[in-house]
Amino acid sequence: MNKQEMPVALVTGASSGIGLVTALTLVGAGYRVFGTSRRPANLDNGVVMLVCDVTDDASVQAMVAQVLAQAGRIDLLVNNAGIGLLGGADESSAAQAQALFDVNVFGLLRVTNAVLPAMRRRRQGRIVNLSSILGLIPSPYNALYAATKHAVEGYSESLDHELRAAGIRVVLVEPGVTRTAFDDNLSRPDRPLPLHDAERSRMEALMRGWIAQGDAPEVVAAAVLKAASARVPKLRYAAGRQARQVSWLRRFLPEAMVDRSLRKFNGLPV
């Protein structure tokens, strides 16, 4: 298959972690893959890396224009770029919360809006948005991050209904805890409060333990590929056993049982 016949995928945040493994998985599945990173990255792995800051409209538009100039179309968009924030909900200023939303929600929106005209012209396309189990459940000391993922869930489900008539589908991939570099894309609160010090430290230690035992990024990449290639896609794809369990827990158990379960899991008094 020559380049002109290969389906074209764009993966944001593809320089490391889930994004990198997803990009490589798509290359292995026969896609022509373009990836983005905030800084130049020359990776000899079959992925064409482009610089893009998803918080900047001009940067996003220029990146999408580069992909279209080289490949002529975009068949698959994987919105993966994102950052985390660990801290009490009242330890972050409004400015820090806005910066988090600017990457995780509005960054996703910017890239989607830039890609949609090309997909609409061809009346086909698939958009895979990386959510999280924290798009389904609360998480103490991850309140703002969970809020961004809840926003991605609502946006994606609504957008899918808008785009189906245009031949475009929007789907969600919801990873559980995944083995990635903990500190790479994690922020700390910009106005830490001493009253949270002990509990914040405990939650950070818990999270490090969960990550060490979490799913490999390949589990998430496999879910992305499944979501991308399904002829009739589902709206949501849970990535890994923990994600499937959480999805079932949230949808089918009474609220009081879910509450007790989550508090127990997070080491809080039930």
From TrEMBL:
Q: Which Pfam families match?
A: adh_short
Task: State the source organism's domain of life.
Answer: Bacteria
Keywords carried by this UniProt record: Oxidoreductase
Q: Which SUPFAM superfamilies match?
A: NAD(P)-binding Rossmann-fold domains (SSF51735)
Q: Which family does it belong to?
A: Belongs to the short-chain dehydrogenases/reductases (SDR) family.
Q: What is this protein called?
A: Oxidoreductase
**Organism field:** Duganella aceris
